[in-house]
Specification:
The protein is mostly helical. The chain has a domain at about 265-480. The chain starts with a helix and ends with a helix. A hairpin with a 4-residue loop joins β1 and β2 (about 70). It contains 22 helices and two strands. Belongs to the complex I subunit 2 family.
Length: about 475
């Protein structure tokens, strides 16, 4: 295959990289005055990267000798990543303008584009080294984003914690990759799969464990979840919304690709790790959220809880299981972004953000539309029918049962009752408690429109999209097998 064909397969990442470089130069010359233009141009760059996925080259298979894979699975994940990243850019200006007068700087959308490029490389990785390069590109941008509000102590603390723990996880992952390479003789996923299909050595088993431990940190699965509540609480809310959506999709898609493509013959070995991480994340995410008083920390534990449910689909190790994971991620993105968009509306009369759950008291009487939207998101996250979040859980449990993992599905279903408690507590606070001081009125029609779109999607009307999503996710899953 010639070099131009290889470059055509990587067109989305080329668009994002060139766009980020050009906008970096524009921001250097234009300064803070160019922020609005740079932000909207970054959204256009993301749209261009998404459009480039429609070409036949995006499904062309292996590029650069197997280092990069362009297929339907990667294209599906990239669409979700670009949507979540674009939303995180759009909602940022008003937040930074209102919070302590800290105007948004043009470096923010540039970092978002670089992170999106890294995530694109992650989900298209066909080699352990490509995997690591993409993951580090995404992570380095994320460390800066977490501490973007330099004058805020919590933001600086969040960035430092994320950096230190992220470096530890990267070391664990790199050690696992070195073990896999040492005992298989290759870093290509296809070659690693052949090694696992042969006689299993203890070194390959240890490599598998360390690789999955490193990936567990990136998806904030138990027991590598410790950074999530602190980073989510301390980071600026638009950045927290980004962390809870796009990188989560990228890391989960990467874990699925590694499990199926590189370590598919060792399914029985990695399935035990995935089942433990799934159940531990579901239970700890639910129990840990019960005592929270900060809504961003509650959503952090909700994120851990939802990762556990997605891992139930991965544990199945089948096409149906991978399809259910992708379906879950689509619905999870809508629920999570919608919830954080509501959090952005939680501001006092002075314009400063309020993050306590108690401040939601009586919201149904002061801001009925906002309360209704948040109630939809909470019920959907809890998996209560007929909202679309119920179908997400149904899909992963059905895939687990189809793979013979009936006990896992039963335990996960029972544990979901624990999680329902803290979601319903938020609804109870909004609808039955005495009203707290009213929030400032909504000033952004864009944010209001995004909340409405997300609420409609996770409502029972979302079931109308099942035929399209089911077909698309199955095509994407089939690309891995």
């Amino acid at each position: 295959m010639d070099y131009s064909a290889n470059l055509a397969m990587t067109l989305p990442e080329i668009v994002l990289s060139l766009g980020a470089i050009v906008l970096m130069l524009v921001s250097a010359w234009g300064g803070s005055a160019s922020t609005k233009m740079v932000s909207w141009t970054a959204v256009a760059v993301l749209a261009g990267a998404g459009i480039s996925l429609m070409g036949p080259a995006s499904y062309g298979g292996l590029a650069f000798g197997g280092l990069y894979r362009a297929d339907a699975f990667a294209a599906f994940a990239k669409v979700l990543i670009y949507i979540a990243t674009a939303v995180s850019i759009v909602i940022a200006p008003r937040f930074f303008q209102k919070t302590a007068g800290d105007d948004l700087r043009p470096e923010y959308p540039v970092l978002m584009l670089l992170s999106a490029a890294g995530m694109g490389i992650m989900v298209s990785a066909g080699d352990m080294l490509t995997l690591y390069v993409g993951l580090e590109l995404q992570s380095l941008a994320a460390y800066v984003l977490a501490s973007f509000m330099r004058r805020d102590g919590r933001s600086a603390e969040a960035g430092l914690k994320y950096f230190v723990l992220g470096a530890l996880a990267s070391g664990i992952l790199l050690y696992g990759i070195s073990l896999v390479y040492g005992f298989s003789g290759t870093t290509l996923f296809s070659g690693i799969a052949q090694a696992y299909a042969g006689t299993h050595s203890l070194g390959l088993l240890f490599g598998l464990v360390f690789v999955f431990a490193g990936l567990a940190f990136k998806i904030s699965a138990v027991p590598f979840h410790m950074w999530t509540p602190d980073v989510y609480e301390g980071a600026p809310t638009p950045v927290t919304a980004f962390f809870a959506s796009a990188p989560k999709v990228a890391a989960m898609a990467l874990a699925v690709r590694v499990a199926v493509e590189a370590m598919g013959p060792a399914t029985d070995e990695w399935r035990q790790i995935v089942i433990f991480a799934a159940l531990a994340s579901i239970i700890l995410g639910a129990v840990g959220a019960i005592g929270q008083t900060n809504v961003k920390r509650l959503l952090a534990y909700s994120s851990i809880n939802n990762v556990g449910y997605a891992l139930v689909g991965l544990a199945a190790g089948t096409q149906e299981g991978v399809s259910s994971v992708l379906m879950y991620l689509v619905i999870y993105i809508a629920m999570t972004l919608g919830s954080f968009l509501v959090v952005l509306q939680m501001r006092g009369e002075d314009g400063q953000p309020i993050e306590t759950i108690a401040s939601l008291s009586g919201l149904s009487r002061t801001r009925p539309a906002l309360a209704a939207a948040l109630a939809i998101f909470m019920f959907s996250l809890a998996g209560i029918p007929p909202l679309f979040g119920f179908y997400a859980k149904f899909a992963v449990f059905n895939a687990a049962i189809g793979a013979g993992l009936f006990p896992l599905a039963v335990i996960g279903y029972v544990a979901s009752v624990i999680g329902a408690y803290y979601y319903l507590r938020v609804v109870k606070t909004m609808y039955f408690d005495d009203p707290a001081p009213a929030f400032a009125p909504m000033e952004s029609r864009v944010e209001g429109g995004l909340i409405a779109v997300a609420a409609v999607f996770v409502s029972p009307l979302g079931y109308l999209a099942i035929p399209v999503l089911a077909g698309w996710t199955m095509v994407a899953a089939r690309a891995l097998f």
